[in-house]
Amino acid sequence: MLLLNNKRILVTGIANNRSIAYGIAQVLHREGANLAFTYHNDRLKSRVQDISRLFSSSNIVLPCDVASDESIVKLFMELKKEWPLFDGFIHAIAFAPGDQLQGDYVNNVTRTGFEIAHTISSYSFVGMAKACRNMLSDSSSLVTITYAGSNRVIPNYNVMGLAKASLETNTKYMAGAMGPEGIRVNAISAGPVRTLASSGILNFRQMLSHHKHKSPIRRNVTVEEIGNVAAFLCSDLSSGITGEVIYVDGGFNIVSDVDTV
Ligand code: 0WD
Questions:
Q1: Ligand 1 centre from 261 Cα, in Å?
Q2: Selecting from 2.40.40.10, 3.40.50.300, 3.40.50.720, 1.10.240.10, what CATH number does the domain 8-250 have?
Q3: Burial 47-78 (b: 16+ CB within 10 A, else e)
Q4: Which of 11, 20, 75, 157 to mutate to test the pocket of ligand 1 (most atoms within 8 A of CB)?
Q5: Coiled-coil ranges per the record (predicted)?
Q6: What is the pLDDT along the chain (261 residues), one digit of tens a residue?
């Protein structure tokens, strides 16, 4: 018996086959889930359609730009035609303008950059939940992806760290509000992975190398390892877990910066 047999899960945030959401989709599919996908814009449409053919027989591929409430509402109106009820979604979406992801935080942050980072990377999680709440089954699971820059100062991550802090607290409040309906909400705090989004962070390569050398497991995590935890969180095996931030970072977060003396 596979972990996710009979589960219908919507996957967002696939830009290409390096995306964390791609790795998650691969594992959810392996575990028997029925998947639907969103794509951000027309540029990504055919790529996500191709990926959907690999990982899903339902062939549900719908547009959604989370910057727009109208687009979010339309997504779920369309999804409802195929899936009146489903079992949750993966939120793997974040964005901040490139000039916000470099240099001195205080000098470089702008009101606009702050607003964009928070609305796309945090509000969108609850915005999606709000729009599909009445379509979620009573054993649903919502999963988002965060990063340790939410509670530590990481060079160049800047305003995205604040947006991730907001996303993690969003996760807790959503878990509190929807728990009585059987809907669980959790976040995975992933170690760094080379993707389109991460390549926008100045000196990301150094960040990868630092994580690799400092992590107890002495390597960076793979998208499959992140996918495995996402599958666990979407499955009934994790039915007692909600409102948590689970680290899939090879233990990087537990290590102090003091080198051996
Ligand atoms: O090291 C990393 N890559 C880590 C990523 C470490 C820890 C956490 N994360 C998080 C990211 O912050 C994000 O929340 O994981 C999530 C997925 O990120 P990713 O897999 O690294 O990035 P990528 O493959 O670029 O996918 C992110 C996608 C976008 O890609 P593009 O290239 O189009 O920006 O997020 C989506 C989009 O598909 N996205 C949107 N989707 C709908 N509406 C929007 C939007 N407005 N903006 C971005």
A1: 39
A2: 3.40.50.720
A3: ebeebbeebbeeebbbbbbbeeeebbebbbee
A4: 20
A5: none
A6: 899 999 999 999 999 999 999 999 999 999 999 999 999 999 999 999 999 999 977 889 999 999 999 999 999 999 999 999 999 999 999 999 999 999 999 999 999 999 999 999 999 999 999 999 999 999 999 999 999 999 999 999 999 999 999 999 999 999 999 999 999 999 999 999 999 888 878 888 999 999 999 999 999 999 999 999 999 999 999 999 999 999 999 999 999 877 655
